[in-house]
Amino acid sequence: MPDRTDLNRRTFIQTTAAAIAGGSLLALDSTPGTQAAVAASHRGGSRPIVISSMNGHNRPKGRPASCIEEAMAILKSGGDPLDAVIAGVNIVEDDPDDTSVGLGGLPNEDGVVELDSSVMHGPTRKAGAVAALRGIRNPSKVAKLVMTRTDHVLIVGEGALRFARAHGFKEEDLLTEESRREWLKWRESHSDNDDWLSPESDTQTGSHAVGRRRWRHTYGTINCCAVNSNGDIAGVTTTSGLSYKIPGRVGDSPIIGAGLYVDNDVGAAGSTGRGEANLQNCSSFLVVELMRSGKSPGEACMEVMKRIADRTEPRLRGKQGRPAFNLRLYAVAKDGSYGSASMWSGPRAQFAVNDEKGARVEPCAFLFESDGTEVD
Ligand code: GLY
User: Fold this and answer.
1) CA 64, CA 57: separation in Å to the nearest integer?
2) Which 8-state DSSP code applies to residue 336?
3) Would you say residue 23 has pLDDT above 60?
4) Is 176 a catalytic residue?
5) How many Å apart are CA 149 and CA 167, to the nearest integer?
6) Average model confidence (pLDDT) across the chain
7) Is 272 in the pocket of ligand 1 (CB under 6 A)?
8) Does ligand 1 lie within 6 Å of residue 275's CB atom?
9) % of residues, the chain, pLDDT over 90
10) How confident is the model at residue 39, as a pLDDT?
């Protein structure tokens, strides 16, 4: 039996499809279907709370807690919210079976794992980040040191590695056998110009995403944000980024305002999925700004998702004019209310929550019903 939320979503999807056929996504803003779907995504309101992308609910082999469980335990023992979320995502960074983050992350096109991460600490309004960092499995810890032990916000590449070494981080080969085998498959079958565009591709609808060669990239990532019982907020995003990327490619995760944003007066937002879309739309910053202007976390995430869909360039659209990639936004407000929006439905359109009701996953609101062609 479909519940009210499902029915609202169906209405929304039908309305969305009609609007796309009519060539306008922005026109959706005033439709009843949209409002109903967005209203259904208003949730929560207790503190402390931790939210994360879905992989924050996994308990890796041999670990007693998931990311959201670990972060909540630290919040409840009076720990700082940034220490809580970093300790949480460290579990995922250390997990070789999560191929989107830290150890075992899928590598760049040369077979080298390059990691990105950012952190934001609401009470001090400070931020730190690293990008294209090689050989260090916990970039989130290095990002925090950039925040606390330098006058900078972002350090990249060789400089980030030297900075990590100076702080005693151990270097290791982050490419696991599984990730190496996946990379080799990609090299052997799909490596021709996945990211390198011809001059014509700019104007061709779907030529990159659904053209002769299907994308074999994945995005992954973990974002985790928390509000403690006093209403102090922090967030972290950490990732191995787009698999098989051009070496040195930096996604949204380490860019403050794109893959993460925290404002201690308002709330926090973060993202997983196609980083380029967030970079072009300052998505996390925009979600927080929309919450500041009165939107619920769910409403803010959905409004930004629609804006991204509307502004997607032709080559990244599939046959029906919809974005051929996936993206998820997660947000939590200072009062502990939370929400999420996904570009597409599907088994991965979920996010993790830990609050007074315990640790669980919940469905994201979504913009389009999956037809299996989008790249996740
Ligand atoms: N959102 C992760 C990335 O695009 O790098």
Assistant:
1) 12
2) S
3) no
4) no
5) 10
6) 87
7) yes
8) yes
9) 75
10) 44
Q: Which residue's alpha carbon is at the smallest distance from atom 4 of ligand 1?
A: 275
Provide mean pLDDT across the span 265-275.
Answer: 97
The b-or-e profile of 4-18 (16+ CB within 10 A means b, else e) is eeeebbebbbebbee
pLDDT of 274 over the 70 cut = yes
Nearest residue by C-alpha to atom 5 in ligand 1 = 241
Closest by alpha carbon to 66, among 52, 83, 78, 48?
52
Is residue 21's pLDDT more than 50?
A: no
| Cα 11 to ligand 1 centre (Å) | 31
Using DSSP, state whether 254 is helix, strand or coil: coil
Question: How far is residue 278's CA from residue 272's CA, in Å, rounded to a whole number?
Answer: 9
Residue whose pair of structure tokens reads 């019903």 in the numeric block: 369
Ligand 1 site, residue 303, Cβ cutoff 6 A: no
For the packed helices 297-310 and 283-292, what is the interaxial angle rounded to 10 degrees? 140
- For residues 236 and 101, what is the distance between their CA atoms, to the nearest angstrom? 13
Note the pLDDT tens digit of each residue in 296-308: 999 999 999 999 9
Task: Identify the pLDDT of residue 38.
Answer: 53
Query: Hey, what are 245's tokens?
Result: 């990327």
Q: What is the pLDDT at residue 285? A: 98
Q: Which of 16, 218, 221, 237 is catalytic?
A: 221
What is the Cα–Cα distance from 204 to 198, expressed in whole angstroms? 11
Q: How far is the CA of 1 from the centre of ligand 1 (A)?
A: 36
Ligand 1: atom nearest CA of 249 is 5
- Verdict on whether the full-model pTM lies above 0.85: yes
Check if 273 has its Cβ closer than 6 Å to any atom of ligand 1: yes
Q: What is the rounded distance in angstroms from the CA atom of residue 60 to the CA atom of residue 275?
A: 25
Q: What is the reported pLDDT for 8?
A: 40
Atom of ligand 1 nearest to the CA of 273: 1
**Amino acid 196: pLDDT:** 75
